[in-house]
Amino acid sequence: MKAIYAGSFDPPTFGHLDLVERTSRLFPEVVVALGHHPARVPLFTVEQRLELLREICAPYENVQVCSFTGLLIQYGKRVGARVIVRGLRAGTDFEYELQIAHANGDMCPEIDTVFLPTRSNYGFISASLVREIASHGGDIARYAPPVVCEALRRRFGT
User: Fold this and answer.
1) What percent of the chain is helix, strand and coil (3-state, nearest 5)?
2) Which residues pair with 2 in a beta bridge?
3) Are the beta carbons of 36 and 68 closer than 8 angstroms?
4) pLDDT of residue 101
5) Residue 31 near residue 24 (C-beta atoms within 8 A)
């Protein structure tokens, strides 16, 4: 059974990596799918984020990293996914994610959504928080893998 864990991963954090690891233990095939949203202006390019994701996901033999445009549910159908995995940090995440899961289930009932709560030590970490701290030269080593920390240092010149 193939599962997809999708996000913008701008940048990838330990919270993202925790979900990759846990998903890789639950499903025999995992696609970490980087969503490309043309209307957004990311800190890192799609290619840079893919490179970072491939490096931090390398230890997980059943994980592949790729990117997509358009609706995740359509991409999931194209790659033969059976499950979409979504991480939940707080109750407010659940309301939003449930709405998306219902819409996805309506469009493609053969793909289910599974929610994984973040571990408590990662519940407050977000890519935007990591970007903000890094942009001011703060220490982000507790929030992101070393390769991501280095990429952020280069990006912000800190």
Assistant:
1) 45, 20, 35
2) 29
3) yes
4) 96
5) no
pLDDT digits (tens, 9 = 90+) for 59-78: 999 999 999 999 999 999 99
Going by the DSSP 8-state scheme, the letter that residue 123 receives in this structure is: T
What are 76's two structure tokens?
């999931």
pLDDT (0 to 100) of residue 158: 76
115 pLDDT band (50/70/90 cuts)? very high
Question: Which residue has tokens 């990759």?
Answer: 20
* Domain contains 151: no
- In the prediction, which pLDDT does 89 show? 87
Rounded Cα distance between 43 and 66, Å, is 18
Q: Which residue has the tokens 């030590």?
A: 121
Residue 91 has pLDDT above 80, yes or no: no
CATH of the domain at 72: 3.40.50.620
Q: Quote the tokens at residue 6.
A: 């999708």
Angle at CA of residue 30, ends 51 and 65, nearest 5°: 15
Write the DSSP symbol of residue 121.
Answer: G
Continuous segment of H or E residues that includes residue 52: helix 46-57
Structural domains in the chain (count):
1
- CA angle at 97 for the pair 95 and 99, rounded to the nearest 5°: 70
User: Which residues constitute the domain of residue 18?
Assistant: 2-122
